C-alpha cells in the first residue's frame, strides 16, 4: 500500500539526527517493546510480512508522528487483536478479561539463543527457471496495490538492470495477508539516478532495490 | 536492566507517559495470558544490548582486509563467510558484502522500514530508522554523506542499496593507508559502524587512541 512507510525520495524531514555514543535503547519501555515484539513473533501467530504490514498500515499522520518503538508497539497491538489473542477492551483496560486463546508455542528464555541463531530464512525452492539473467534490462511494473508490497513508489515504472539473482524468496505481497509464501525469484535491480530522479540527479548515482520477479517486465 | 517486572504491584502510574503505560499494559496482558515469558524478553534485550554489535562486523571487515582468501569467500558467499566467524541468525540470514573502491562508494538504506544486518552490526541507530535518512539516502546520498562529515571525490560513483527484501548488506570500507602489517585485531579497531553502513569511512591509524 502507498503508506507513510514508503519514504524514499520524500523531502522536508530536516537534518539527520546523529547521536554520538548512542545507547541501544533510550528508555526502559523501548527494551520491553523490543523484547515483547520479538517474543510474540516467536509464538508463530503471524509472519514477518504481517508484522511489517501491521506497522505500515497505521494512518500516515500517526506513523510519521510515532517513534520507532511506538510503531512496533502499535503493530503488536493490532496483530494480537487480529490473531484473536487479545481483545480491544482488554487493551483499553490494560488487563486480561478472558482466558488465553490457544497459541502455537511460547518462547522460553533458555531457547532464545537457538531461536535467534536459527532466524527466519526467507529462501525457498522455486520450480520454474528464473525469467531474467544478470545484465538483462528490465522495467519495474507500475503497481499501486491496496495490500502489502515491497516495491517502493520511487522505483515503479523505471528501467534498470538485473545485477544479482538471489534465488527463490517468500513473496511478501501474499505472505503478509495469509495468502501463502508463493515464493518467486528475487533479483537486485540497479537503476541510474537520472532514471529515478530525472535530469537534475547526481550523474554518479546508482540505486538498487531487491525486486521479486512479478515486479518486473523485460525492458 | 534484566530484572523481572511485576506491574501488578505498581499502583502509581501517574508519573508514566502514555507510551510507557501502553507498553506496560500490553506486556502485562501478554504475560498474564501466558503468551510471553518475561524472562525471554529479558534474554532478548540482553542479547542485543550486550552480546551483539558492530564489533562483529568489524571482525569480518578486518579479516577481509588481511586475508585474500577470506575476502574472496565473502564476495562469493557472504552468509557462509560471516557464519564461519559465528555471526548468524535473525536479520542476517541472507548476507551480501559490498566493497568500496576508489571508483565506487556503497551506502545501505531501508526506505520502507529498518532492515539492517543485526548479527554483524547489532540493532540500527535511531537515525538509520528515521525519516530524514530513509527519505534522502536514495535521492541525495552526497548530501546525506556531508551530514556525516564525509566528502568523496566527484569521480567516486555513489551506489545505494535499498534493502527492500530479506537480503542484508554489509559495506566493506576501503582499508586505510598506513595499515600494512597490522594485526586483524588492530585493523578491526579502525572499522566503525557507520563505515559498514556506508555513511562513514574506516578510521586512519592515527585517529585511533591506542
Give a summary of the structure in a few sentences.
The complex is a heterodimer of chains A (about 220) and B (about 210). With about 220 residues, chain A is an alpha+beta fold.
**Share of residues in helices of chain B:** 40-55%
Uncertain spans of chain B, ≥5 residues at pLDDT below 50?
1-11
Order of helices and strands of chain B: HHHHHEEHHHHEEHH
Amino- and carboxy-terminal Cα gap of chain A: 25 Å
Amount of beta strand of chain B? 5-15%
CATH class of the largest domain in chain B, anyone? Answer: Alpha Beta
Biggest interface, chains and residues, is: A-B, 93 and 79 residues
The first-level CATH class of the largest domain in chain A is given as: Mainly Alpha
CATH superfamily of the largest domain in chain A: Nitrile hydratase, beta subunit
Count of domains of chain A: 2
Q: Could you tell me the number of beta strands of chain A?
A: 5
Query: How are the strands of the largest sheet of chain B arranged?
Result: 1-4
Secondary-structure class of chain A:
alpha+beta
Structural class of chain B: alpha/beta
Describe this structure in words.
The complex is a heterodimer of chains A (219) and B (210). Chain A is an alpha+beta fold. Chain A folds into 2 domains: 91 residues, Orthogonal Bundle (Cyclin A, domain 1), CATH 1.10.472.20; 82 residues, SH3 type barrels, CATH 2.30.30. Chain A is 30% helix and 16% strand. Chain A has a 5-stranded antiparallel beta sheet with strand order 4-3-2-1-5. The mean pLDDT of chain A is 97. Chain B is of the alpha/beta class and 210 residues long. Chain B has 2 domains: 37 residues, no CATH class; 155 residues, Nitrile Hydratase, Chain A, CATH 3.90.330.10. Chain B is built from 11 helices and 4 strands; from the N terminus they run αααααββααααββαα. In chain B, the strands form 2 sheets. A two-stranded parallel ribbon of chain B has the order 1-4. A two-stranded parallel ribbon of chain B has the order 2-3. The N terminus of chain B is likely disordered. At the A-B interface, helix 1, helix 2, helix 4, helix 5 and helix 6 of A face helix 1, helix 2, helix 7, helix 8 and helix 9 of B. Strand 4 of chain A pairs parallel with strand 3 of chain B.
